[in-house]
Design goal:
- By secondary structure, this protein is an alpha/beta fold.
- It has one domain: P-loop containing nucleotide triphosphate hydrolases (Rossmann fold).
- Helices cover 47% and strands 15% of the residues.
- The protein has 7 helices and 5 strands.
- The N and C termini lie close together (11 Å).
Length: 170
């Protein structure tokens, strides 16, 4: 049975770093909302204001991969409760297992340093400033989830914790 792993958290907490390492370790497909949103903004449609468009595209691509039996890792902020509900619907529609992972960075100075020194690796993606991250709407997951704090922890340790959770869940 395929597995959907949804990573959420504010920009700069380490989601993409974890998602990439997790994908390398497990062979899962890594789907990043930043990549989709940047492509939509650069398209001839110039979709810049449709905040949900990237998430809707990601849901469709995730379904395609899950129905092929591929595990999928979603790398998204998931700013409002509606988005985790969408991932639950994707899991239901495809009959896959869903693991929610909320990524945090409890060291505020480290989180700020990450945000302020971050360089975009996606053409057309403008990374947010620290003040934009602080002002961003973000509703933490309310349901079952694994919370992974990346402050002072090795990436491989965080990935091992996620993999162990995936293996232990029914």
């Amino acid at each position: 049975m395929a597995r959907l792993v949804a990573l959420s958290g504010l920009p700069g907490v380490g989601k993409t770093t974890l998602a990439r390492a997790l994908a390398r370790r497990t062979g899962a497909v890594h789907l990043r909302v930043d990549t989709v949103e940047a492509a939509l903004a650069q398209s001839t449609l110039a979709i810049r204001e449709a905040a949900d468009a990237g998430y809707v595209v990601l849901a469709g691509v995730a379904k395609d991969n899950l129905l092929l039996g591929r595990d999928v890792i979603l790398d998204t902020v998931n700013p409002v409760a509606l988005i985790p509900e969408m991932w639950a619907g994707v899991a239901r529609d495809t009959g896959c297992k869903l693991t929610n992972v909320e990524v945090t960075c409890s060291d505020r100075a480290l989180h700020r340093r990450r945000v302020e020194t971050r360089q975009s690796d996606v053409p057309g993606l403008v990374v947010p400033s620290w003040s934009q991250v602080l002002a961003r709407e973000f509703e933490p997951w309310q349901g079952d989830r694994l919370v992974v704090d990346t402050a002072g922890r090795d990436v491989s340790d965080c990935v091992t914790r996620i993999v162990d959770t995936i293996r232990e869940s029914p």
